[in-house]
Design goal:
heterodimer, A: 397 residues, mainly beta, 2 domains, ten-stranded mixed beta sheet, B: 256 residues, alpha/beta, Rossmann fold, six-stranded mixed beta sheet, four-stranded antiparallel beta sheet, 34% helix, globular, binds adenosine-5'-triphosphate, binds magnesium ion
């Protein structure tokens, strides 16, 4: 257990918060409880650290066992990509669980409720041309589904996977990314659900020796989307870059919870999540837990969350936690800032003849720019730019 | 020929609980081909005049009018005023993170000209304009004004003036924060803009030093939210020697 040095949760509001010192979270994530059994977890009441930001009433029973599966979790994967194998497997497949174990009740519920899982494997030493598309379609309005997906990049594989959630309904799932030795896996997860969908997802990543995981999480559509991502390092030399881009409209609850668990030496992590919010009741939550365990000497980590509030009535919660149990690290830092759309910027651009809608687009695209720039798949970048423009057009901005 | 007419302009600044009147009846007419210097002590309302003409939301016009060729600017949105031919070089240009200067300039030029400039011509035009103002080409890829020094910001305001070629330019303390060389470069930029005698300039300044590079046709003394005296270039010389004391009752120098 590290000594408490500083506690600085950056809550909503116009806070600016940035420093490199060690910070201890309210409760250590180090000995986090995990289990495949639903009943090993209490039904959340809303006060728990894990659940205090989530509107439980809107979970449609995913958290208390009342949401029985009534529909299907439909997974479609591009077929015929050289080097890529797609399998539908039963619950007993031994590979399942390789990247992690559920750490909350809904993840455990999803684990015990799925009937078949999809395993996508990129063969060792291969580099598929173009991204592999995995599309998950919700079960439809008024129905519930549980699912499981595992993406495996074997030794020295190098692949881009786009995991695309769309459609309607209530969904909980576990997704695993198993990145083998020296493999390089880039994943773009897009949550572009219909307006009434509820999705609670748990993503588990296992990064092997000298392996690289690049993950971009995009969250745009859905009534409530809560994604918990955990990164585990299996051996030295692992490198994880976790990017996120979200855009919440009136009434939407978008929650991203990250745990990067540095348990082995000489690994790196870099977290950058940016969100924009607009409209009454738009709510985003970002929890960034980074744990550097005593054994994880030579760790290098940085995490940053920034939120841009475009209108009144929106709220962004942002809580970076950095817990350091060894002094022998390369570097560690975190920052979080939430600010309002700056009317002075708008005035400046308009004073140059730029119409208001174009000016807003420039500023918001500019805000997301450092993430958009890092997207190497042009089709994904273009789709996101178009989505951002559509979000802005929706409020007649 | 174009005309910018400011008539009996009253402006209040919106504060948290009430509004405070800053401009108390400003009258001024600028014709194309003319450069008018507005000089006045700190806090006399010079920037308020500039912002009010441009349409900054913090400033409320309580009465009066601003006409550009007979068209009421006060009824137009900020961007419409700019497209009508008005330009404001700001005393404190705003930083816009994430938006590159080149993207910004191109977007502004597209708005001003009504169509996107042709790429080949545009690139040349921007390069030349930047060279004229001694601006390093690397600035094109930097975010608008972000991390620019005071002088670099002012040069970029004049760069925009050069590229957008508005009918009228209000230059709010463009000279402040400039060293001797920069002052010369920026003044030359303004002089290029007015060279064809078809542009009007309202040059707001606290000090006389820029008037050694840019010769005004008229000089107005601004105090207490209105023009209190007008004259020719000789009025600036007088202000340089006597300061604003005659107009404010307080000693404040106009010389540097
Ligand atoms: N946004 C504002 N909120 C409150 N007061 C303001 C605001 N803007 C201007 N003022 C006040 O209005 C008065 C005029 O300010 P203004 O900036 O127009 O003066 P100025 O002549 O440009 O001064 P300077 O030479 O320092 O640039 C000052 O008393 C200033 O404090
Ligand atoms: Mg001023």
């Amino acid at each position: 257990m590290a000594a408490p040095l500083d506690t600085t949760p950056a809550q909503h509001g116009l806070t600016d918060h940035s420093h490199g010192g060690p910070v201890i979270p309210q409760s250590s994530r180090g000995e986090r409880f995990t289990s495949y059994e639903v009943d090993a977890f209490e039904v959340p009441g809303g006060r728990e650290e894990d659940w205090r930001f989530t509107p439980l009433k809107r979970l449609r029973g995913l958290h208390d066992g009342s949401a029985t599966a009534t529909g299907s979790f439909a997974v479609a994967v591009d077929s015929g990509v050289a080097g890529v194998t797609v399998e539908t497997v039963g619950r007993d497949d031994e590979r399942l669980g390789a990247a992690g174990v559920p750490a909350d009740r809904i993840a455990a519920q999803a684990w015990s409720s799925f009937t078949e899982a999809t395993v996508v494997t990129v063969a060792a030493d291969t580099r598929p041309e173009g991204p592999v598309h995995v599309t998950v379609t919700g079960p439809g309005q008024g129905t519930t589904a549980y699912g499981h997906v595992q993406v495996r990049a074997e030794r020295f594989a190098d692949a881009v996977v786009v995991l695309d959630y769309r459609g309607a309904g209530t969904v909980a799932d576990n997704v695993e990314f198993v990145v083998g030795e020296s493999a390089r896996l880039s994943v773009v997860t897009v949550h572009d659900w219909d307006a009434d969908a509820v999705h609670v997802g748990a993503q588990h990543s296992a990064v092997g020796r000298d392996a690289t995981l690049r993950h971009l999480s995009v969250t745009l559509g859905g009534d409530l989307v809560r994604v918990s991502s955990t990164v585990n390092y299996r051996e030295r030399g692992g490198d994880a870059e976790l990017l996120g881009l979200y855009f919440a409209d009136a009434g939407q609850h978008l929650e991203h919870r990250l745990l990067v668990d540095h348990s082995v030496p000489n690994c790196r992590s870099n977290v950058l999540y940016k969100g924009a919010l607009q409209g009454e009741g738009a709510h985003t939550v970002w929890i960034g837990d980074v744990l550097i365990q005593a054994a994880a000497e030579g760790t290098e980590t940085f995490e940053l969350n920034r939120n841009l509030i475009l209108t009144d009535g929106a709220r962004a919660d942002s809580v970076p936690n950095l817990e350091i149990e060894t002094g022998e690290i390369e570097g560690a830092g975190h920052a979080s800032a939430t600010g309002r759309f700056d009317d002075e910027q708008l005035f400046y651009l308009q004073a140059r003849g730029i119409p208001e809608d174009v000016a807003r687009r420039l500023v918001v695209r500019g805000f997301f720019g450092e993430i958009l720039q890092k997207i190497t798949v042009p089709e994904v970048r273009e789709r996101l730019e178009a989505a951002i423009d559509a979000e802005l057009a929706a409020v007649g901005a | 020929m174009a005309t910018l007419e400011i008539k009996d302009l009253h402006v209040s600044v919106k504060t948290d609980d009430d509004a405070k009147e800053i401009l108390r009846g400003v009258n001024l007419t600028v014709n194309s081909g003319e450069t008018h210097a507005i000089m006045g002590p700190n806090g006399s309302g010079k920037s308020t005049l500039a912002y009010a003409i441009a349409g900054h939301p913090k400033y409320e016009v309580t009465s009066g009018s601003v006409l550009l060729d007979g068209e009421e600017l006060l009824e137009l949105e900020v961007d419409e005023r700019a497209r009508a031919g008005l330009f404001l070089a700001m005393q404190y240009p705003v930083e816009v993170p994430g938006v590159s200067m080149s993207n910004f300039l191109r977007t502004a030029a597209t708005a001003a000209r009504g169509e996107a400039p042709q790429v080949r011509h545009w690139v040349k035009e921007v390069k030349q304009a930047m060279a004229d103002l001694d601006i390093d080409p690397s600035f094109a890829e930097r975010s608008v004004n972000e991390g620019f020094s005071g002088g670099e910001k002012k040069r970029h305001e004049i760069l925009q003036l050069d590229l957008l070629k508005p009918k009228f330019a209000v230059l709010d303390e463009t000279d402040s924060g400039l060293d001797v060389d920069a002052l010369r470069v920026v003044s030359e930029g303004v002089n290029r803009y007015t060279a064809n005698k078809d542009k009007g300039v309202l040059l707001i300044t606290h000090y006389t030093r820029i008037l050694k590079h840019i010769t005004p046709d008229f000089v107005h003394v601004f105090a207490g939210g209105r023009v209190v005296e007008s004259g020719g270039a000789e009025l600036a010389t007088q202000l340089e020697e006597e300061g604003y004391v005659r107009f404010t009752g307080a000693k404040e120098s106009a010389a540097v």
